[in-house]
Every structure is written in structure tokens, then in C-alpha cells.
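Marked as duplicate of an earlier ticket. Keeping the data here for the record.
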Amino acid sequence: MRTLLLALTLTATPAFAQANPQIDYPGFQALTASVAPERATRLVKFDAFKAEAAKPGTLLLDARSKDAFQRGHIKGAVNLPLTDFTAESLAAVIGANPDRPILIYCNNNFSNHRSPVPLKSAPLALNIQTFINLVGYGYPNVRELADVVDFTDPKVEWVTG
């Protein structure tokens, strides 16, 4: 009986995966594949990241939860949790220029591995989903912090809530 249920589940999954027209997993896979080579060229070392963040018009976007952001973030960052990304919310935060330079970072950019930046599983690091989503929503000028830094280092300019 257990084998039969497993077989039914496995054979039924593809049909269920396409049942909701508002969820497009094959589209997500295609977007992810198309973004991968571009993302590899958009990784920025810490010193260049900080220099870019200081330029007028550049958005330093923190897509962690509101709670994590309030407990600590890089000075100058603006918070929009990934779970709140929609075309409208992104436009409200980013503005009218889709080519605006956007810098992103996540928990996995910090060596501290404690609140508010506990280490995430590497394949599930927030930078990955954030990058894919921003490009998918039409924002091509996204760059990502490449380094792992200590948020207590004064150069990071960590703001504690």
C-alpha cells in the first residue's frame, strides 16, 4: 500500500505542478538559467561595494525580513523583504528608472553567524533569490556583495536597531 501511494504521488506531481496558472516553475527554471552567467559577472568585492553604495542614486537593498533588518543592517540600506516583492512594491522602493544601480547583500555575506544574520544553507542564500527576482522584475543593474565580512568591522558601518 505504501509503495502504491508513493507511486501515485510521484505520477500525480507533474499534473499538480501545472494546475495553478499563476505559478510557472518552468518559467522560473528558464529565468534562473538565463540569469546565472550574468550573476557571475555581478559579484563585487567589499571595498568596491561600499564605494558604489556611496554614489548618489545607488540603492543598497536589504531583502531580509523586516525584523532582521531592524535588528541590524549596513548603514544606508533600504529594506524590502523578498516576500514583499511585487512589481508595485519594487517600483515604489527603486523608483522610475529600471536601470538604477542596485546593490544587494544577505546573511551569508557575514561571518558572524548569529542574529540578525544567521548562516543560511548556501544553495538557499537570499542573494540568489533576490538577484533572480530583481532581474525577473526588469531591473538589470543588480550587483551583489561577493565577500564574507564581519559586521563588527567598522568599515562595514553596521547599524544596530
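See parent ticket for discussion. Helices lie at 2-17, 25-40, 46-53, 66-71, 87-94, 126-136.
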